Amino acid sequence: MRHATANPGGGRDHERSLTDHGKDEAHHVGRWLASAGRAPDRVLSSTALRCRETWFALSAGLGREVPVEFESRLYNATPEVLFDSLTDLTATVGDTGEMTEESVLLIAHNPGISYLALDLAGEDPAPTPLRSGFAPATTACFEITSSWAMLSPSSAHLTCYNAVIDL
Known about the structure:
This protein has helices at 20-35, 49-62, 79-87, 112-121, and strands spanning 42-46, 68-71, 92-93, 99-100, 104-107, 139-144, 156-162. By secondary structure, it is of the alpha/beta class.
């Protein structure tokens, strides 16, 4: 997911906050994820204020607590760094003692996040909406058929694309 709409520049980029509209966008995405049965088990987010605020508003719309990790390496990261943040994930131990793979929400910045989505889509015939870019609060969902460590375009399939437009 790309962070929601932020205030224009005019100070330290890392400290730019969301607009009120951006907070509404993020809240809407949270409601959409919950209603679509796509609530994440874990969140990785850039440390930029606009990404943190996106998560807090999204979380309120989601209506449940989810562990979140704010990582400085995700701030304005390249697609390669974003990819590495996913392949570095380790499976967790579930209630039954078995290793489980989690659903992860990655909140970051353009152009890295949109290029990562295109890279993951690879030769998938469905990436057409991805080619239009990622407006603020755009979310792409992928089904992954491998472990995080083995993530590749051949193990990722685009299952949904949601661009928040005109709330």
